[in-house]
Design brief:
alpha/beta; Rossmann fold; 17 strands; 7-stranded mixed β-sheet; 10 helices; globular; Quinone Oxidoreductase, Chain A, domain 1; 317 residues; 6-stranded parallel β-sheet
Length: 317
């Protein structure tokens, strides 16, 4: 099969062995996959990942349990053992023995085929297009923000890092009725936010220490520093991105001003699919470019450019 393989460096391999299912796994024929910031970080050396990256996808089940054959599916990325203490507490995404699709010891979706346990699969409603379905995983991550922190309709919320995840998170938080705005660096981001009636500002236009909730989607030390500058005393910073470098943190200010810093990661796929099915969140406007799997190296180069939104791999129909 064709695949993008990361081993020391990224390469396209048209003769990668097709994976073989084991246990309760299904063999998935990938239809489309999305390139995200985490993929680019992995390619740059983050986590020393070796294998096939890619964790945002929509696929068709072609082998596995009979009830799954022919289903169009998306898949949760945390493959849990189901038996550890955290799994038993209802936190499989934090399983002590988990692998993570396309990120940690589990081959991902930048290929013709991949395997995944059926426990992680969700059937895509007929009314949701393949393009929209690719956004299920990042949209679920955006929804997890609401699991992490109680959001009041009275809250003033600022999103920092209006990339793909930041734009999804802004739309999700807008549904709460809260006063949501975003800090932008590119005109394309401002245009989309204006389309959704979400105010967009330059960083210099947002006053310091006046925001109840700051959502940091930057994954940079500069972004965290800006978040700490914007949040008010007893406010909350929600971290939505991983940090490849270690930011310097003013812990004294966090303690003195009683600021909460909350991590937020993967989220509910069923809720994300409902939002896509009802059209309450616009995802297709985030697609900037489409490439065939044969041109996947060019796709990665395009996705790595500053200000670029979602780049999709069109793997199969």
């Amino acid at each position: 099969m064709r695949a993008l393989v990361l081993k020391d460096q990224l390469r396209y391999d048209a003769n990668t062995p097709t994976p073989i299912i084991e246990g309760d796994e299904a063999l998935l024929k990938i239809r489309k996959a999305g390139i995200c910031r985490t993929d680019l970080e992995l390619i740059g050396g983050y986590l020393n990942f070796s294998g096939i990256p890619g964790h945002e996808f929509v696929a068709e089940v072609v082998e596995g349990p009979a009830e799954w054959i022919g289903q169009r599916v998306v898949g949760e990325i945390n493959v849990a053992d189901g038996t550890c203490d955290l799994c038993q507490q209802g936190m499989p995404s934090q399983c002590r023995n988990r692998t993570t699709v396309g990120i940690d010891r589990h081959n991902g979706a930048f290929a013709d085929y991949m395997t995944l346990t059926t426990r992680n699969l969700h059937v895509v409603p007929d009314s949701v297009s393949d393009t929209a379905a690719v956004f299920t995983e990042p949209l679920a991550a955006a929804l997890q923000t609401l699991e992490a922190v109680h959001i009041s309709p009275r809250d003033r919320i600022v999103i920092i890092g209006a990339g793909k995840l930041g734009l999804l998170t802004a739309q999700v938080l807008r549904l709460t009725g809260a006063n949501v705005s975003a800090v932008v660096r590119h005109e394309s981001q401002a245009r989309l936010l204006n389309k959704w009636y979400i105010p967009a500002f330059a960083r210099s236009e947002v006053p310091s220490k006046r925001t109840q909730v700051v959502v940091d989607c930057t994954g940079t030390a500069e972004g965290f520093a800006d978040s700490l500058d914007l949040v008010q005393p007893r406010g909350t910073i929600i971290l939505k991105s991983t940090y490849r470098a270690q930011p310097q943190i003013d812990l004294t200010r966090i303690a003195v001003e009683e600021i909460k810093v909350v991590g937020s990661r993967c989220g509910p796929f069923d809720a994300a699919l409902r939002l896509l099915e009802t059209g309450l969140v616009d995802v297709e406007s985030l697609v900037e470019a489409r490439y065939s799997l044969d041109d996947s190296l060019k796709a990665v180069d395009h996705a790595a450019q500053r200000g670029v939104l979602k780049v999709l791999l069109e793997v199969s129909d």
